[in-house]
Automatic annotation (TrEMBL), chain A:
GO terms for molecular function: rRNA binding; structural constituent of ribosome. One of its GO terms (biological process) is ribosomal small subunit assembly. PROSITE patterns: RIBOSOMAL_S19. It comes from Roseiterribacter gracilis. PANTHER family: RIBOSOMAL PROTEIN S19P FAMILY MEMBER, SMALL RIBOSOMAL SUBUNIT PROTEIN US19M. GO terms for cellular component: cytoplasm; small ribosomal subunit. Belongs to the universal ribosomal protein uS19 family. This is Small ribosomal subunit protein uS19. It comes from the Bacteria. InterPro entries: Ribosomal_uS19 (IPR002222), Ribosomal_uS19_bac-type (IPR005732), Ribosomal_uS19_CS (IPR020934), Ribosomal_uS19_SF (IPR023575). It holds the Pfam family Ribosomal_S19. Keywords: Ribonucleoprotein, Ribosomal protein, RNA-binding, rRNA-binding. Protein S19 forms a complex with S13 that binds strongly to the 16S ribosomal RNA.
UniProtKB/TrEMBL annotation, chain B:
Keywords: Chaperone, Cytoplasm, Ribosome biogenesis, rRNA processing. Pfam families: PRC_RimM (PF24986), RimM (PF01782). Belongs to the RimM family. GO terms for molecular function: ribosome binding. Residues 4-83 form the RimM N-terminal domain. HAMAP family: Ribosome_mat_RimM. Binds ribosomal protein uS19. It comes from Roseiterribacter gracilis. The PRC barrel domain binds ribosomal protein uS19. Residues 96-162 form the Ribosome maturation factor RimM PRC barrel domain. GO terms for biological process: ribosomal small subunit biogenesis; rRNA processing. The gene is rimM. It is found in: Cytoplasm. This is Ribosome maturation factor RimM.
Amino acid sequence: MARSVWKGPFVDGYLLKKAEKSRGSGRNEIIKIWSRRSTILPQFVGLTFGVYNGQKFIPVLVTENMIGHKFGEFSPTRTFYGHASDKKAKRA
Amino acid sequence: MRFCVGAFAGAHGVRGLVKLKSFTGEPDAILRYRPLTDEVGGREFQVTLVSTAKDCFVVKVDGVTTREGAEALASVRVYAPRAALPATEEDEFYHADLIGLAAETTDGAPLGQVAGLYDFGAGDVLEIAVPGGKPLLVPFTRAAVPQVDMAGKRVVIDLPVEA
């Protein structure tokens, strides 16, 4: 069952404070967070979070199309890395 | 330089057909790369697609006509030459090219070696193996990786500050 709209998106309070502080600093920062359950809000776009997966902090660069998803979706806890083969990476 | 594009997964039937598992971005790209060889390049495989099976292709390999011959190929990795890959766009790099490059800080201090590249849905992430330390994960962005010097075989990392 979907979350009631009147409640608004869930986000841990401390994330908003950290995001605001990081945006103000203007440095190349990774915001370490443990809150995988928090929803990605529009004010997080452009920031890089280090989302804990139980072992390490996976860098998550927030883009517009990630709004509404949870942070945990981008930091897998069990990973099959696959093969490099002919895969390409584009520098954002 | 060669890169791994797949592996033989075992025999199919009794007439020497072999199952071929593809590791390429588009699975059928493996059938376009030529020549396919083993790891050292000592043996060349001429493959012809016969049919597709679950998660793999069924191919005929020239010179293999019996089930025993096909079974002997099981788990042999298949490699293609780096030159067979098409050119990339600006700021686009093949994982196979980046893995193994030396990583340096902006001051020129050695940091380690690129051990892997991952994409978990939020942009590419560079894994740097640090000798005697924990591996570093760095977002593959212009801010964090300002320079990729393919000729010099190094990447420059501007380590992000942790907040």
